[in-house]
Design goal:
With about 425 residues, the chain is mainly alpha-helical. Helix content is about 50%, strand content about 5%. Bound molecules: s-citryldethia Coenzyme A.
């Protein structure tokens, strides 16, 4: 039996169907509201708006639960790899050995960039932010693969593999460009993460060999970032994709959305905040006080989340991993102690407790990446590499949804009523 919610406005009442998700979440379907009642809903920042139904990722923000295609993030973090998880997200099930081998082979085949990409990179100023280059170069892929527009199943597989693979090469080249270093070609003998580290850190005369600990830690970081349902960048990919923009153009827009400090850029902001505390610019206590002062405009970076009102399960895994990996690498980073102290202070402060503000995915990831030798300006780029399978999965799901329409919100207009044009001479 379909459940319904009743809405009464003045002398009219409408019954709105209530949709139930597979985990019992309820949503009022308002698609007929304007046509039948002349009303729209107003929900700036979409805090109460479900933009779609989706079978990819489940979050219970109250309980701190995150699952990809039903699999708890803790199990995937322990047993899976980034590439296996990418397949799971994009294609909806864990791959068989043959499927995973085929996907890995495609990733290896697609790792190199067209030689002319080098000239594109050389056109950027050396101090260009890697996120700007990443977005531009992902868009540039559309120039080389215009077929990414209307994709049948086989073509989609090809383009998805191309993007998952090339985003890593583009990211590494962006870093090399920012240092004025020679580009390093991908090595077909290396697996996904080791190959990325090779392209980042090798020299033509000196092959960088990443340690097992670093490869495992980066693999984990990518896996934990792989999807997070309708976050700002994924919603951007969906909005852009809804105009039937191709896969590359849609994901390039996702990179731009991710860049901001309230979203993926928070991992950089966290590190800058911890460094400022370390250098004595401000104590942990002063930092918290500033974050509580609304007039300051400052937020405690890496804290709070639109959906989680409990621990972000990814932050729990990353904190544990930071403890372990820093120990394995013999790194004694004072920023880790500062982060732990800030967390402790915040979690016992009534401002943060009342608002249910906990560490999010960006709070500990920067410390881990720093221990691995990854420079700060690459942190959000690494987030983008990790998020690519999620963006691709959502683009695919959206395109497979029957009756997909262009995203086009409405508004409540608050500007001037009709006004007659004034000739220049009459204007004050
Ligand atoms: C990511 O959406 C996703 O899923 C994103 C993500 C993903 O994987 O895709 O999880 C990745 O983007 C993580 C978030 C990274 N950003 C930060 O760490 C920046 C710091 N955090 C915030 O600015 C904030 O918490 C957001 C942006 C994450 C969430 O913003 P909301 O949902 O709009 O929160 P809100 O403004 O409604 O906050 C409620 C209250 C407000 O106070 P009151 O007006 O009720 O008094 O909490 C306060 C806020 O001012 N608040 C904070 C705070 N976060 C919220 N106060 C101080 N420091 C903070 N960090």
């Amino acid at each position: 039996m379909t459940r319904a919610a009743k809405l009464t406005f003045e002398d009219k009442t409408i019954e709105l169907p209530v949709i139930e998700g597979s985990e019992g979440e309820l949503a009022v379907d308002i698609t007929q509201l304007r046509a039948e009642m002349g009303l729209i809903t107003l929900d700036p920042a979409f805090g109460n708006t479900g933009a779609c139904t989706s079978a990819i990722t489940y979050i219970d923000g109250e309980k701190g639960i995150l699952r990809y295609r039903g699999y708890p993030i803790e199990q995937l973090a322990e047993h899976s790899s980034f590439i296996e998880t990418a397949w799971l997200l994009i294609f909806g099930k864990l791959p068989t050995r043959a499927e995973l081998d085929r996907f890995s082979a495609q990733l290896t085949a697609h790792a190199p960039l067209h030689e002319s990409f080098k000239h594109h990179f050389e056109g950027f100023p050396v101090n260009a932010p890697p996120m700007a280059m990443l977005s531009a170069m992902i868009n540039t892929l559309s120039c080389f693969h215009p077929e990414a527009q209307d994709l049948d199943e086989a073509a989609f597989f090809e383009e998805a593999a191309r993007l998952v693979s090339k985003v890593r090469t583009i990211a590494a080249y962006s870093y090399r460009r920012s240092l004025g270093l020679p580009f390093i070609y991908p090595d077909p003998k290396l697996r996904y993460v080791a190959n990325f580290l090779h392209m980042m850190f090798s020299m033509p005369y000196d092959q960088h060999v990443a340690t097992r600990e670093v490869i495992e830690a980066l693999n984990l970081i990518l896996l934990l970032h792989a999807d997070h349902e309708q976050n700002c960048s994924t919603s951007t990919v969906r909005v852009v994709g809804s105009s039937r923009a191709n896969l590359f153009a849609s994901c390039a827009a996702g990179v731009s959305a991710l860049w901001g400090p309230l979203h993926g850029g928070a991992n950089v902001a966290v590190l800058e905040m911890l460094e400022a505390i370390h250098k004595g610019g401000m104590s942990a206590e002063q930092t918290l006080a500033l974050a509580k002062d609304k007039k300051s405009g400052f937020k405690l970076m890496g804290f709070g989340h639109r959906v989680y009102k409990n621990f972000d399960p990814r932050a729990v895994i990353l904190k544990r991993s930071a403890d372990k990996v820093l120990g394995q690498l013999g790194v004694n980073d004072p920023l880790l102690d500062i982060a732990r102290r800030l967390e402790e202070l915040a979690l016992s402060d009534s401002y943060f407790v009342e608002r249910m503000l906990y560490p999010n995915v960006d709070f500990y990831s920067g410390i881990l990446m720093r221990a691995m030798g990854i420079p700060t300006n690459m942190f959000t780029v690494i987030f983008a590499i990790g998020r690519m399978p999620g963006w691709i999965a959502h683009w695919k799901e959206q395109h497979e949804t029957e009756g997909m329409r262009i995203a086009r919100p409405r508004q409540i207009y608050t500007g001037p009523r009709e006004t007659n044009y004034l000739p220049m001479a009459e204007r004050k």
